[in-house]
């Protein structure tokens, strides 16, 4: 049995029943059998593993505010103009098609023009666009459509795309897809592949399940004919073997599909634009270790603001709330902003998180993944009362902290 609605064995039916029962406390209207079976298939109908997977996904969606990301987050202009990819048309059986001109990506241009976290959020937006498209296609075709087709064009893909910071983001995006958007991909068709694609695919393999690896199809020189076997000619741009063009005659349909290209110099951000540079704090995080900094919030809905950069190499950054008095490991604290590696040696990382309740909050600079390089972090972190966040936008400074420099081999507060 396939494990899809209408094609379940007796054992699979029982697993679905148990799964539904285990999730009673988090059930939502959209958690129908189609939705629940995706998570069960992703974990080979192991109910306990599927439950862990789905609960982690719900926590992640809350932390990243995924439910509102299409309406409330505006990506930097450089991403909307120069990040390749977009939805266009559908297959003969109604599956949405995502076209990704991967070879036209300018990784250095983008990573020097926006934050790594913005790129991750942009990819989340893409995933949510795809989920919305699946719903629209289901309504249009009168049946449940759960999968998409991806066409990856590796024309012009080269050595510059294998730049390590770009590969790091590629790995993070891969790590996001399967835990949070399982059973969405039907097939990925690779066209215009060259030897650099082989290198990339070998890098990607450890992050892909066997099922996902089986969904990657490498097409040869006759790829246009192969694509037209599953996609009607009017549902593909001329560039990819169809007949569709933009209103202005663009054969790539660039109004819907980002075509990438070299990022102009004027988009590049200054590496460091921290304010009150004479009053910044510094901390050196030794190789293989982490530093935890405590901040206290006395009012509900206060705001923790942060600005920081490293003098060389990336570092991971996260924010947590202590849930017990006294010593507590980060792993046991409540995640406010989950720890994520950021390229703050290239572009300063800044932002803010709302602290919904009073308590002790822990900012983590994590270098445990590096066994070679220590990292010197220059930062400005504050907890502001709720009303101060509005003044922050008009102020010339986040404020200041006492100068200090701490050199630690391992810190546990």
Automatic annotation (TrEMBL):
GO terms for cellular component: cytoplasm. Pfam families: CRAL_TRIO, CRAL_TRIO_N. Residues 278-383 form the GOLD domain. Residues 75-248 form the CRAL-TRIO domain. InterPro entries: CRAL-TRIO_dom, CRAL-TRIO_dom_sf, CRAL/TRIO_N_dom, CRAL/TRIO_N_dom_sf, GOLD_dom, GOLD_dom_sf, SEC14/CRAL-TRIO_domain. CDD domains: SEC14. This is SEC14-like protein 2. It comes from Paralvinella palmiformis. The lineage of its organism: Eukaryota, Metazoa, Spiralia, Lophotrochozoa, Annelida.
């Amino acid at each position: 049995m396939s494990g899809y609605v209408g094609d379940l064995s007796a054992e699979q039916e029982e697993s679905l029943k148990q799964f539904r029962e285990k999730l009673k406390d988090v059930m939502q209207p959209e958690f129908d059998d189609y939705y629940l079976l995706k998570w069960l298939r992703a974990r080979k109908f192991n109910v306990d593993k599927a439950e862990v997977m789905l609960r982690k996904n719900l926590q992640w969606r809350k932390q990243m505010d995924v439910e509102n990301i299409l309406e409330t987050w505006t990506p930097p202009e450089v991403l909307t103009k120069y990040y390749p990819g977009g939805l266009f048309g559908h297959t003969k059986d109604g599956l949405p098609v995502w076209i990704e001109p991967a070879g036209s990506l300018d990784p250095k241009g983008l990573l020097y023009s926006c934050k790594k976290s913005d790129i991750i959020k942009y990819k989340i937006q893409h995933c949510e666009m795809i989920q919305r498209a699946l719903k629209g296609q289901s309504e249009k075709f009168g049946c449940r459509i759960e999968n998409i087709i991806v066409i990856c064009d590796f024309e012009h893909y080269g050595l510059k795309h294998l730049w390590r910071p770009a590969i790091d983001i590629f790995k993070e995006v891969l790590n996001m897809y399967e835990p949070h958007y399982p059973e969405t991909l039907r097939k990925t068709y690779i066209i215009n592949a060259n030897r650099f694609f082989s290198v990339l695919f070998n890098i990607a393999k450890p992050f892909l399940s066997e099922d996902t690896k089986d969904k990657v199809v490498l097409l040869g020189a006759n790829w246009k004919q192969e694509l037209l076997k599953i996609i009607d000619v009017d549902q593909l741009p001329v560039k990819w073997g169809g007949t569709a063009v933009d209103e202005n005659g663009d054969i790539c349909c660039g109004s819907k599909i980002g075509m990438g290209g070299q990022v102009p110099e004027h988009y590049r951000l200054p590496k460091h634009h921290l304010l009150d540079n004479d009053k910044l704090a510094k901390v050196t995080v030794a190789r293989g270790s982490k530093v935890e900094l405590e901040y206290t919030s006395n009012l509900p809905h206060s705001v923790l603001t942060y600005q920081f950069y490293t003098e060389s190499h990336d570092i991971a950054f996260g924010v947590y709330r202590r849930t017990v008095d006294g010593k507590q490991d980060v792993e046991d604290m409540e995640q406010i902003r989950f720890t994520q590696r950021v390229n703050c040696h290239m572009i300063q990382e800044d932002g803010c998180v709302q602290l919904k309740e009073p308590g002790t909050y822990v900012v983590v600079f994590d270098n445990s993944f590096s066994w070679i390089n220590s990292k010197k972090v220059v930062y400005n972190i504050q907890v502001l009362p709720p009303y101060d966040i509005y003044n922050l936008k008009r102020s010339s400074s986040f404020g200041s902290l006492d100068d200090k420099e701490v050199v630690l081999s391992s810190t546990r507060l």
